C-alpha cells in the first residue's frame, strides 16, 4: 500500500492554485470519501446509500483490480477531488465501443464545498486530464457520464471531449465521449511540455 504522501502529479492553475494527485488509500481516505460520495451533489456517483464499510470495500476492490486505479486529488495540499482511471477494454465499456490502444477511462468527483471557488471544477478536470496525458501511453480519454448530467457534459466539452452518442450500461444510459491528446491541448492551451 502506498503512502498518502506519494505525490504522482502536480499542476498549478494560474487562477486557482496548485493541484496534486496521490494514490488513494482505501482505509485512511474512506471516511472522507464517504462524505463526498453520499452528498446530495454526488447523485450521479450512484453511492448515495453507501455505508462507510461499503465505501471501504469499493475502494479496496479498485485498489486490487489490475485495470482500475483510484487517486486522491489535492488542492493546496488538502483533499479536494477523487479521480479514477480504468482500462475501458477491460471494464465499464467492454463490448460497448471499439477500444483502441492508448484508450484510458476516467471518472472524477469534486468534493462538496460550502465556499465554492469560481473556476474550481474546470481546473480540477483540467488537472485530471493533464495527469492522464502525462503518461505518454495515453492517446485518448474515454468517459461515460449519465446522459442527464448536463453540468459534466459542459465541463467535458470545455477540455476537448466530443460526444460519440448514448450507450446503455446496466446502471445508466451514458453519453460516450472521447478526448484525444490533441483535442485536450487545443481546448486548454496546454501542450505536452506544459502537461
Q: What string, H for helix and E for strand, traces the elements in order? A: EEHHEEEHEHEEH
Mean pLDDT: 93
- SS summary, helix count: 5
Distance between the termini: 27 Å
Strand content: 25-35%
Strand order of the largest sheet: 1-2-3-4-5-6-8-7
Fraction of helical residues: 25-40%
Query: What is the 3D form?
Result: globular
Number of E strands:
8
Largest sheet, in brief, is: 8 strands, mixed
* Rg calc: 16 Å
Which residues sit in consecutive blocks of at least 5 with pLDDT less than 50?
Answer: none
Secondary-structure content class: alpha+beta
Provide structural commentary.
With 195 residues, the chain is α+β, with helices and mostly antiparallel strands. Helix content is 27%, strand content 29%. It has 5 helices and 8 strands, in the order ββααβββαβαββα. It has helices at 30-37, 52-64, 120-133, 150-158, 181-188, and strands spanning 9-13, 17-23, 68-75, 78-86, 103-110, 140-143, 162-168, 173-180. The protein has an 8-stranded mixed β-sheet with strand order 1-2-3-4-5-6-8-7, sandwiched between helices. A hairpin with a 2-residue loop joins strand 3 (68-75) and strand 4 (78-86). Helix 1 (30-37) crosses helix 2. The protein is globular and about 35 Å long. The model has no long low-confidence stretch (mean pLDDT 93).
Summarize the model shown.
With 195 residues, this protein is α+β, with helices and mostly antiparallel strands. The protein has helices at residues 30-37, 52-64, 120-133, 150-158, 181-188; strands spanning 9-13, 17-23, 68-75, 78-86, 103-110, 140-143, 162-168, 173-180. Helix 1 (30-37) crosses helix 2 (52-64).
Amino acid at each position: 500500500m502506498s503512502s498518502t504522501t506519494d505525490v504522482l502529479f502536480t499542476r498549478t492553475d494560474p487562477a486557482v492554485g496548485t493541484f496534486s494527485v496521490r494514490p488513494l488509500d482505501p482505509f485512511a481516505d474512506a471516511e472522507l470519501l464517504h462524505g463526498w460520495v453520499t452528498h446530495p451533489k454526488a447523485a450521479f456517483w450512484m453511492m448515495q446509500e453507501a455505508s462507510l464499510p461499503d465505501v471501504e470495500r469499493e475502494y479496496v476492490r479498485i485498489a486490487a483490480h489490475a485495470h482500475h486505479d483510484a487517486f486522491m486529488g489535492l488542492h493546496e495540499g488538502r483533499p479536494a477531488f477523487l479521480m479514477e482511471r480504468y482500462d475501458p477494454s477491460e471494464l465499464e465499456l467492454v463490448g460497448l465501443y471499439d477500444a483502441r490502444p492508448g484508450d484510458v477511462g476516467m471518472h472524477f468527483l469534486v468534493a462538496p464545498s460550502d465556499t465554492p471557488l469560481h473556476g474550481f471544477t474546470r481546473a480540477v478536470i483540467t488537472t485530471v486530464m493533464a495527469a492522464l496525458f502525462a503518461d505518454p501511453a495515453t492517446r485518448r480519454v474515454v468517459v461515460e457520464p449519465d446522459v442527464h448530467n448536463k453540468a459534466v457534459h459542459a465541463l467535458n466539452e470545455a477540455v476537448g471531449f466530443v460526444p460519440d452518442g448514448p450507450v446503455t450500461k446496466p446502471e445508466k444510459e451514458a453519453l460516450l465521449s472521447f478526448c484525444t491528446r490533441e483535442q485536450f491541448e487545443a481546448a486548454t492551451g496546454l501542450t505536452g511540455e506544459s502537461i
